[in-house]
């Protein structure tokens, strides 16, 4: 069993997911921007540094995503009055609308790919994935 490598399957699913999202979200944004928008939702006024840590992305990637989202009018980036090097991020009304579309699209994707999969099997899958994720994290943390 352990001779079988599963990484290629996850990469392929991730690629299909990206294609699906790109086909169904009418904006020029990718997964990095999707994750940042969702992370900001309900937490207006957070810093880019906070988002980087929360999402596990490097600061440069978060800065790039925020710059793009700001340019599209989805977020406001303002200099933090307490730290002039930092930006405070908040959603615009347009950003809130896009999050609703993203959430609906994610839900349709999830419902579709889980079609025909028993709830119990899915729960076992999530437990196994969580163990694999923790093992990978521990391996890198050493």
Task: Describe it.
By secondary structure, the chain is mostly helical. The chain has one domain (7-116): Orthogonal Bundle (Arc Repressor Mutant, subunit A). Helix content is 65%, strand content 12%. The protein has a 3-stranded antiparallel β-sheet with strand order 1-3-2. Helix 3 crosses helix 4. The two termini are 26 Å apart.
Write out key terms for the chains shown.
142 residues; mainly alpha; Arc Repressor Mutant, subunit A; 6 helices; 3 strands; globular
Strand percentage lies at: 5-15%
**CATH superfamily (homologous) name:** Winged helix-like DNA-binding domain superfamily/Winged helix DNA-binding domain
Low-pLDDT parts are none
Oligomeric state of this protein:
single chain
Mass-distribution shape: globular
SSE order, one letter for each helix or strand? HHEHHEEHH
Task: Report how far the terminal alpha carbons are from each other.
Answer: 26 Å
Q: Radius of gyration from the CA trace?
A: 18 Å
Q: Characterize the biggest β-sheet.
A: 3 strands, antiparallel
Considering DSSP H and I runs of 4 or more, what fraction of the residues is helical? Answer: 55-70%
Mean pLDDT: 89
Count of structural domains = 1
Class by SSE composition: mainly alpha
Number of strands: 3
CATH topology: Arc Repressor Mutant, subunit A
**Largest beta sheet: strand ordering:** 1-3-2
Instruction: Enumerate how many helices there are, as a single number.
Output: 6
Please identify the top-level CATH class: Mainly Alpha
